[in-house]
Amino acid sequence: MDFFSFLRATPRKRHQSGLAPKEVEKYLENLCIDMEDDPLSFWQTNSVQYPVLSKLAIKYLTITSSSASVVRLFSLAGKMDSAQTDAV
């Protein structure tokens, strides 16, 4: 079974050359990097070998995480709890 058969079945392809599936196959054949290694450095170093994958990796690995929405939620819940306690 061809892992990328679903890509050929789609009516519109973003990469007409089929470069992305070949890159993924080549990437999966290689060994994993060590846990201590920096994944961004890996993708920067291998951007010539994996041009499509490196763009995706850099795009998604550089998303900054934030707990601000969670902090706001707990703050609001605390205010609601305080308001209920004060009302009783």
TrEMBL record:
Protein name per Swiss-Prot or TrEMBL: HAT C-terminal dimerisation domain-containing protein
Coiled-coil annotated spans: none
Database matches in SUPFAM superfamilies: Ribonuclease H-like
Organism this protein belongs to: Mizuhopecten yessoensis (Japanese scallop)
A GO MF label: protein dimerization activity
InterPro entries: HATC_C_dom (IPR008906), RNaseH-like_sf (IPR012337)
Segments forming domain HAT C-terminal dimerisation: 23-80
Domain of life: Eukaryota
